[in-house]
Fold this protein.
Amino acid sequence: MSATADHAENLAARLGFQSEQVVQEIGFDDDVDQDFRDALEDHVTELVDEDYDDVADAVLLWFREDDGDLTDALVDATELVEDGALILLVTPKTGKDGFVEASDISEAAETAGLSLAKGLPVGKEWTATKLATPKTAKSKR
């Protein structure tokens, strides 16, 4: 495994992906970071596309400024996973085509009811922001 691929797989684990997960990928296009995507695919049980019709364990959402409404995309992503699941929002870095402002990400995440964590670089062109769906409170007996 190359140093770049090894770093990408370690990044997948650091971002919270686990080996037994099925991850639904949304927004795939020819501009995505293929090293990170390949490493994630090697790290998890299965990387499935937008047409997957079962509940996934996590979502990988590639999103560019001109992809539509980010809040809508995040709300749709929450419907694909269980409560408490990881949604990884990956957007172009500052200055790159399709860049999404951090304030727009924060506002969209809050509106979608997601908790937001610090972003991490994914390759040369992309930044990942960890989002999590709220965990359902367990009732006290």
